Amino acid sequence: MPVVIKGPSVIEAAGNKPKRIEEFIGRINSETDGVSIARMKSPSGWVEPGQRPVFQEYTVVLAGELCMQTESGDMLTIEAGQAVITAPGEWVRYSTPGPDGAEYIAVCLPAFSPGLVHRDVE
């Protein structure tokens, strides 16, 4: 039987400014541990600690720009209408330095959990 998700759960985000995470499918909202699907809304100037997650992450930017710093120091800018795929074990740091922040969808396999993200200690 199909399961209708009537709305997301709002999850606290890491970073220097409040960022809204709306989990539609995942460990909290649907008790799904195989995949998580969430809408992120991050403000201008938001940055989070670096991380080395053990999950595959697929990110689609809907509005604004999402920046991603890689372990080599490269800075990638993913614009509205673009997407990025991050492999498990790859170090990244996300930020939204642009004036409009960003809105994006993140899909994680397996589902996101704080214990799987392995954030840097700052």
Notes on the protein architecture:
The chain has one helix spanning 114-117; strands at 9-11, 20-25, 36-42, 46-47, 56-70, 75-79, 83-86, 92-96, 102-109. It is mainly β. The protein has one domain (9-117): Jelly Rolls (Sandwich), CATH 2.60.120. The longest helix has 4 residues, at 114-117. It starts with 8 loop residues before the first strand and ends in a 5-residue tail after the last helix.
How many individual β-strands?
A: 9
CATH class: Mainly Beta
Largest sheet: 9 strands, antiparallel
> Any idea what the shape is?
globular
Describe the SSE topology.
Blueprint: E1 9-11, E2 20-25, E3 36-42, E4 46-47, E5 56-70, E6 75-79, E7 83-86, E8 92-96, E9 102-109, H1 114-117
What key attributes describe this structure?
122 residues; mainly beta; Jelly Rolls; 1 helix; 9 strands; 45% strand
